[in-house]
Structures are given as C-alpha cells and as structure tokens.
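Changelog excerpt

This revision adds worked examples to the README so contributors can see how folded entries look when concatenated. The first example is reproduced verbatim below.
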Amino acid sequence: MAITKETVEYVAHLARIQLEEHELEKLSAQLKSILDFIDQLKKLEVSNIKPTSHILPINNVLREDTRGESLAVEKTLMNAPRKEGNFFVVPKVIE
C-alpha cells in the first residue's frame, strides 16, 4: 500500500491533528517504512508455527491462592461521597 503525503494529510485531518509540512513528509516516510516491513513479514512461512509459540521457554509464575483478610464494610465506605446501606452510590451512566 502506497502512503503518500496526501494520505497522511487526510488521516491527520480526520483525527483533527494539525501537522506542519516537514512533519507530513517525515510521517509519510516512516509509515511507508513500516508498511514495507509488514510486507516482508507477510512473505514468511509460518504455517507450522503454533499461534501461542514463543521463542523463549517462559512459564507463568503463579502463587498459591490463599484466602486473606478483607476490609471491613465500614472502613471501605468511610470516605465514600455517597453510600446507601453497604454499597457505594454512583451516578447513573446508562440511558
């Protein structure tokens, strides 16, 4: 895909980003370089590589799942601007 200065200018306009002339040229060149690299990656044979493969032998380090102390309801709600019973009261955001 060809990235021209006009394409970058159009996308910047849609994003409401004001770019100077030298920024348009620099960004056009950078985006072209990125897309060229992606085209190189598309040529690689990856059909035999599992989607979750990783080049390093990594494992998640998991801790024992143990039950701990919880905050008391009174202490949890102590600084709440509004509360009702044992609950926080928040403004309705769904119409």
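The second example, added in the same revision:
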Amino acid sequence: MIFESFKFRVSGNYGSIWKERGWMPRVRWPRRGSRAYYPRKRAKSIVGRIDHWPEVEGSPRLLGFAGYKVGMTHIFMIEDREKKPDYGKEVMTPVTIIESPPMLVCALRAYTKGPDGLKPLTEAWIENPPENLKRRIKPLMRGGGAKQLDEMRGEIDRIAEFRLVLATQPWLTGIGKKKPEVMEVKIGGGTVEEQFEYAKSLFGKSIRASDVLKPGESVDIIGVTKGKGFQGPVKRFGVRILQDKARKTKRGVATLGPWHPARVMPGVPRAGQMGYHNRTEYNKRILMIGEDGDKINPPGGFIRYGLIKTDYIVVKGSVMGPPKRLIRLRKAVRKAGLPEVAPTITYINTTFHLGGGSG
C-alpha cells in the first residue's frame, strides 16, 4: 500500500486513486479581493461617478443616459457573433431591463482648460424648472436662460468642453419617487461652436433614450452595487475559516503580519464595509430599446419593482445594484468587437413564479 501510494505520487497520476478511496486533497486558492478597488468604502452618492468620457467623431451628440434597474429575465435570440459555435442558431440569453424615462435638460455647463485640467467657467439654467427639481436643488439658480446663453456665447473662445446637466423624471415611472437625480453628461463630437448650437437646441427639453442610444450598441454601465453592510473577512475576502482549536478567533485571518514593520499592512484582509461601491462594467450590449411596456411586463409586474410605464432598455447580462437602483449608461470607451446592429429576438420571457403571474 505504501509502495502503491508512492508510485502514484512519483508518476503524478495520484488524483484517480484518491478519488477511488473517497477523499481528495484540500483545494487552496488565493483570497478574494483586488487592491484595485481600495479603499472599500461606501459610495458618496447614489449617482454613479464617471471620471472619463470617450472621444467620438462626427456630429455633436450626448455620450450618456440613465435609468432605473427593473430586474432580470431571459430571451431567445439568433446568435449573430460569427466566431461563436452557435452562430446563426437560436440561443437563450439572460438580460437586465432598465426603465429609462425621458430626462430633462435643465442646464448647460461650460468648462475651460487650465494647467490643472478642466475647471467650470459658466453655466446657464432653464427659466421655469419643474417643482420636483426643486426637491433636489435648493435654492435653484435664478436668471433667464436665454440671457445666460448669450453671455456664454461671448466667452466661447475660452470654452474647451460642454456638458449638459440632466435630471431624471422618476415620477413618470411606478417606483413611487418624486425627487430626481441630477448628473452631468458630456457632449462629444464636432467643434465647440457646433456643440453649443446642439446644446442650445436641447435646452429645456426632454430627451429619450432612443435619441442617445441605439440597439446593438455596446455601452459601459456605471452604478452603485448592492450594499451588504459591515462584514467580516470571511465574507468580505473569502479567507479560510480556521480550525476549532485556533487561538482567539476562527472567522478571521490567521496572522496580521510580522512584528516589524509594526503595523498592519494594506493587503491583510480585515473587516469593514462590503457593497454599496461605485463600479463600472465595460461593453454591455444593448439588445433592445422599447417604448411599450406591455410587451415586456409580466402580468403581476416585476418583483420588487412593479410595471414598466415608460421607455426601457434591455441589456445583455447582469447589472449591479438592487431593483430601483439608478444606472448610468455611457458610450463605450473600449472597442468591443461586437456587431453594432440589433440582434433578432424571437422570444421574451414574461413568466415569473414569485409574484409575477404567468402567461
């Protein structure tokens, strides 16, 4: 028996005999948690933070939009990626639905470029904002919008970039919310003068998701993840639970490090905030943009959300955050190599077993 075990160890083919005897060696893996996401603290705002906008060519256009996460379902579509084994066949794909009511253009902000980067130069606000917008911005800036735009035109030689200040309109949905979220969206493409005329044409109007995005396009998803509260290192980093005879603790890291340097190093897993972090997912493909919620609503509504009442966006795969979480969509900053036309969708599942009815 000893020789047999030694023979299998020498040959390197001892996994099969271990499996026959009913036991396998303990699998070891590195702890979870990338240093790229430090510090793991709560996001400052529920509105996802965007630090970079892509450079686009052509006529001026907005580079982003926003909506509210509804939930997930699955669809059947014709696989249109040529290098995939199922190319041309019908495949099932999990999707996330984002309700995207029209967004109100409430201000235009101009930036100038200095030695330290972009700095706000001037801005123009609409004259008669809706009452719900005052719930978010108090006091709202006064002054005529046309007058401020004329003043901005006089300083156009100093302006390097324009951004529209957009406000969501959650009262158009069924989530029971009146207080909007306000965010900046960059205007890309064209010259500075063309961007100004484009922004002036949208000033004070409502824009829809179909005006900014198109089916088949790849976008980046920015949002705040689902919050888990204060968690220990086992759940937060996936460290191993120590044996029963371990000293002092079991659900903790075995050692905090050496005596010197006399401090806990940054890479040591410790307890702290888990979730509610600002995250970005690149190259999520838009499969469909719809206006009729009855086409995708289950009979009893989506779980923890309800019925879709306005425009919606169907994105391939999962999206961070719980239902009703604000999700921002940005033009992709990396080349995805995916088809830029909308795929053929043959079936959309509207059957849910938990409160969604059947049909």
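Reviewer comment on example two: The longest strand covers residues 64-78. Confidence is low (pLDDT under 50) at residues 1-12.
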